[in-house]
Amino acid sequence: MMQLRRPYNRNVKIPPYAAKIAGVLGVLLVLAFLAPGIPQPVTEVAHTAATPVWATRNAMLSAVYGAVAILETKEDLIKENNALYDQVSALRREAFEADVLREENSRLRELLNRPESGEAVAASVLSRPSSSLYDTVIIDAGKSAGIQKNNIVSVEGGVAIGTVSEVYADTSLVVLFSAPGKATPVLISAATATPAVAEGWGGGNFTVRLPRDSTVEVEDPVILPTLSPHVFAVVEAVESDDSDSFQVVRFRVPVNVSTMRHVLVLTGEKFEPEIPTAVEGGTAATTTPSS
Amino acid sequence: MTPRGNVTLYRILIAVALILSAVTLPWWVTAALAIAALSISPAEEVLVAGLIIDILYGAPLPIFGGIVYATTIMAGLAYVVGYLLRMYVKRTFRR
Questions:
Q1: ∠ CA A162-A166-A170 to the nearest 5 degrees?
Q2: CA separation for the pair B37, B43 (Å, rounded)
Q3: Which of A130-144, B42-56, B81-95 has the lowest mean pLDDT?
Q4: Cβ of B73 and A32 within 8 Å?
């Protein structure tokens, strides 16, 4: 009788490495396509367990920075002191102007019946953006401090750096506006207020593509279009090519997000832009700020 | 110490270093440690470190397709590539 099928070879064994690799790949596929987000209680427990470790790390870093500062020479300190004096007098002038403008702004708001809430919670940074590829920050204030999802997070000088993504009992996860691929509607240049969608590049860096005719210059401020506009970044470079009808504008947060130690969570203000995906072109989408 | 004891000690050290690094150090230090560990042995601890990073810092970003397990997936792929590379190198040098 003719044999139609090859007999099953019982001697063929699946090598152990193949089973191991297949297992790992299977788990990865499940994580990528089937698994839901990380359950909140899991992250909450992890944050609670990691908080003392982060606090110890931050205390050790402060001690190291303090020790390094002692090693600086007297001459360097005098130079730095003089430079700081100049900086302080320049900042005093700017602060005076800012006070005048703030007062005028609040009077105009009262006229329009849109008073500023001004509620804010100060928080310490437990973990900095360089800890992961996500460009997120963990702060030591959560639900107990009245923090809510999508609250704006700012640093000194009112520079908005991100929004609260998840809130736990005593900690919160803040996603920076500069998180890779994150799209945020902005207004470039206080004078022209050119609407655009900034794409995050990580570490406080952004790019935006604008038509070449748009007037943008280096050191122009970039503003977050909320009810009370926040400084978002400062233009660092404008790159254009004769063969391209668009220009690439690169800007950066005016503070070092890798070394910040404290932030301010604006509990009275939320920012929920309606731009879920990556950026194309330079048109700003509408935002739904609420205060 | 027996060779088996050496391996156990090595695995414990790798696990502690990777987990501490995932919690306290910048991601690129953890990545360098993971590559070093994977080049020596099939260190499953790399997957644990990836998962810890995702649990602590993960957020659904568009660049990762909204997946919050991006670091675990990258660690898993690195584990598979490391495993295959080590096997290839072993076979090549045995001949």
A1: 105
A2: 6
A3: B81-95
A4: yes
Q: Whats the size of chain B, residue-wise?
A: 95
* CA–CA dist B24, A279 (Å, integer): 32
* pLDDT tens digit sequence for B64-91: 888 889 999 999 999 999 988 888 888 8
CA distances for A65 relative to A59, A73, A261, A278, B59, angstroms: 10, 15, 13, 38, 31
Residue in chain A closest to B31 (alpha carbons) equals: A132
Q: Encoding tokens for residue A164?
A: 């609260």
B87: amino acid identity, one letter = M
Residue B76, both tokens: 């898993």
Strands (E), A33-171: 121-127, 136-139, 151-155, 159-167
Per-residue pLDDT tens digits for A67-101: 887 777 778 888 888 899 888 887 887 777 777 77
The vertex-A198 CA angle with A230 and B52, nearest 5°, equals 90
Contacts of B60 in chain A (CB under 8 A): 37
Condensed to tens digits (0 to 9), the pLDDT of residues A201-236 reads: 988 899 999 888 888 888 888 988 877 778 888 899
- C-alpha–C-alpha distance, residues A255 and A125, integer Å: 14
Closest CA to B54 of B38, B74, B80, B82: B74
**CB-CB under 8 Å, A28 with B73:** yes
Tell me whether residues B62 and A278 touch, CB distance under 8 A.
Answer: yes
- Reported as type and span, the H/E element at residue A268 is strand A262-270
